[in-house]
């Protein structure tokens, strides 16, 4: 399967087709880890719940600490 990136605001997005999502047993709420081996993009479902919780706490802290800056960037 060959896919192209699509424009999504100021970013690019890759659309994952439903059959692939079903094969991987993921949905739109599944946290995904994105990594690379230097030549390929590797996208994997996150299965470590502790890792997800640490990430969510880190995001809350960043949002609190940099709230005014993030709001300015959003404008």
Structure description:
With 75 residues, the protein is α+β, with helices and mostly antiparallel strands. The protein has three helices and four strands. It has helices at residues 18-24, 49-65, 67-74, and strands at 6-8, 11-13, 32-36, 41-45. A two-stranded antiparallel sheet has the order 1-2. A two-stranded antiparallel ribbon has the order 3-4. The N and C termini lie far apart (37 Å). The mean pLDDT is 91.
List unreliable stretches of 5+ residues: none
Question: Termini, distance in Å?
Answer: 37 Å
Give the proportion of residues in helices: 40-55%
What overall geometry do the principal axes of the alpha carbons give? extended
Summarize, please.
This protein is an alpha+beta fold and 75 residues long. Helices cover 43% and strands 21% of the residues.
Name its key features:
3 helices, single chain, two-stranded antiparallel sheet, 75 residues, 43% helix, 21% strand
SSE blueprint and pairings:
Elements: E1 6-8, E2 11-13, H1 18-24, E3 32-36, E4 41-45, H2 49-65, H3 67-74
